Amino acid sequence: MERLSIDTIIAKILAEETFHAVSEEYSLTLKIDEYVPYLCGAVHDGHQFRKELWDNCLHSEYDRWYEEDPETKNMVNSHPIVISGLDSRFEYDLNRDPDNAVFDTAWGKQLWKRPLPDFEKTKSLQKHTNFYKVVHALISKLEKRFGICIVYDIHSYNWQRWDREVPTWNLGTSNIDNERFGESVESWRQMLESIKLPNDIKQTAKINDTFQGNGYFLKYITNNFENTLVLATEIAKVYCDEYKQIIYPEVVASVEQQLKILIPKHAEEFYRKFKA
């Protein structure tokens, strides 16, 4: 993996080069092993938190981990194109628009002891801007090359905070063209429901049950590219103990191994159906 500037990463995309890169400021990773009409994103995988923010932050390291999406990059890292965030959403949230990406409060609790200085916000928001510059270049390239593109937008959620039964997988579709892409959404839901997990973990997959797909990553791509479908795909955190901060690697590995088969299968089905 190379450490590259945002401009160099974009130049490599425009030239259709294959590469593995971390951005110069260590805010994102992008790997492109091959140009294919689909990509995987893990925007909330990051856990880094700038040291100069530590003393001013009221949330603990565990509080931050609890609201992040650990292991989501590992679940899709075998695919040809993967983009992920490295920083915690508590510094800036890639799945929120720039005006709301730097929190004052987070999940009902004040985040900072003292209001965050403007120069700290600017530093964080520049990394948010850089991420979307890369996303824009990448989707532009894939749409130009293939005419159609699909994005698997991978997240996780804390299922134990709900006071009702919730699905293992949730697809958020309220901001996509369901008339055009509805069959592909249902096909993806069925594939997710077919996954078998260890430790007798129950497998269900529903649409708009816990989340509706209101994230900025999905909205940005959907609003800027008419031939790209973003599937906001949330797995309940059955792959860890939410309260003890323990990851179950056998569950993560099982998800990764099955998505390794199912994502290319679904992407190929989508491409055949919608290519020009």
TrEMBL record:
Gene3D superfamilies: Zn-dependent exopeptidases (3.40.630.40)
Protein name, as recorded: N-formylglutamate amidohydrolase
